[in-house]
Amino acid sequence: MASQNSSLNQRDRLATEEDLQRAFAALARVPAPLRPEYAAQLRGTLRDELASRAARPQQPWWRRFVSSAPPVARPAHQVPPRAGYGLRLAMAAVGAVLILVLATALVTELYPLGSSAQVATLSVRAGEVEIARPVRIFVDTGLMRRLTASSAEPVRLLPGDELVSDPAADAEIALPDGSKMAVGPGVQLTIEELQARTAAKPLVVAMRLERGEVRSQVEHLRADQDRFQVSTPNLVAQVRGTIFRVDVRRDTTRVATDRGLVRVQWAGQSVDVEAGRELVVLPGQLGPRVEALPQSPTIDLALPAESAEIRPDGEQVFFTKKATIPIAIHTLPGAQVEFVVNDVAVARAAADADGRVTVDFPVDAEGEYRITAVIETPAGDRSLPAPARVLVVDRTPPALALSEPAQPQVKTSTVLLSGVTTPGAQLVLNRQPLSVDAEGRFTQKLRLSPGPNQLVLIATDRAGNSVTLQSVVILE
Is 10 helix (H, G, I), strand (E, B) or coil? Predict the structure, then answer.
């Protein structure tokens, strides 16, 4: 009995009457009063619970904050949430901060801020250059952003950028030290490394050429510090201040030096290519065959760039309907130039003091002509044929036919215009361009005015041949 009284006294000390009154105040919301026998039992239970809570260790401030948060009102049949309102609020704040940080990083990757230490910029004089830019969001997770560079304004290049130029492209990559690289049509080039020169760091430029030709003019490199290199699938060309060209077509790679010296490395070997020479890596049955020969000439066709296309193997193809094609050949001054068409030598001339030969090539029949040239130096050394230009002579107008609307009279103000033309042809309707798919099909919705509506379709192929189709659709 004494033990029980001591226990009651202990509970009374831990749970004061004021505490009990606050606990019972919650029962005021109950519509019916408690029975006397249950009230005594409830009083004892509450006294034990309050005593137990008072004996617990002190909680940290953040736990008290969470546990003191008001509970979320839920139906009685649902289990109450484990975390309090304060904890959820804190987690939401942390999540918002993480989202803000990731969004800022993503926007910075997509749209990098300007910097006074610009490493490389791309300027496009004609045509377009597509840029595929990898954007890393988190570790190895990322996406690819695609840009189109035109003559509007220069574009800053970043490591990882992959450049693909169209058949009409004429572009240039400029470096702050004065070095530059000419990018022609059909080039596929990846920027592997770019590092601006500072007081503590050297200039580093590393690019990989998968297809096409680039011409580099490298200036003011510091020996044994700066690095400028162009790699291909089978070699690496490094320079120390020079002008050189790298050309990749099919399985053949050429490195031609116009000025200075280029060191070319391949399969554990290396050779220095002097001015006026070129190194050619050819595919062979027993591995790549490397030859150092007189620099082969380059060929320019006096045809619009819009009439050209690039084949998957990197060859440039020109379409024309002309009867005579002016061709310019650039080579070493005084060299003998042999003009070759479809593997047959058709003309021979000496280059002038500027290393130039002009040929007017007559074309009588339609067909495909493969044009190249070979030079012979005064010492009797012969070069390999120049990278070929393919000439397609086409004097046949493209096809053009309408399938819809099937009848000239219609009763709705909107009709579907559809038909087919020669694949690759440009199509305009009443002086407005229409899209043509790879198979030459086209579809366009037209809104008609009451009465007769004149339709004038003109299809023009790459060679410049055109055909006109006129039609009248009457809205009744």
Answer: helix
330 inside domain? yes
Q: Give phi and psi for 363, each to the nearest 5.
A: -125, 115
Strand order across the 389-393 sheet: 308-310, 316-320, 389-393, 367-376, 336-341, 344-350
Is the CB of residue 209 less than 8 Å from the CB of residue 232? yes
CA distances from 63 to 50, 293, 393, 416 (A): 19, 81, 84, 69
- State the pTM of this model: 0.63
**SS3 assignment, position 332:** coil
In a domain, 75, yes or no: no
Asked if the bond preceding 405 is cis, omega within 30° of 0, the reply is yes
The predicted-structure confidence for 46-96, as pLDDT tens digits, reads as follows 677 666 666 655 555 445 544 544 555 555 555 455 545 566 676 776 666
Return the axis-axis angle of helices 36-54 and 2-14, rounded to nearest 10°: 70
Whole-angstrom distance, CA of residue 140 vs CA of residue 295: 44
Asked which of 364, 393, 422 is the last residue of a domain, the reply is 393
Instruction: Give the end-to-end CA distance of the chain in Å, rounded to a whole number.
Output: 111
The position carrying tokens 């305009």 is 428
Tokens 């579809």 appear where?
443
- Same-domain status, 285 and 137: yes
Rg (CA), the chain: 40
Please name the residues in contact with 246: beta carbons below 8 A apart, sequence gap of 6 or more.
209, 213, 214, 216, 230, 232, 237, 253, 254, 255
Give the Cβ contact number of residue 77 at 10 Å.
5
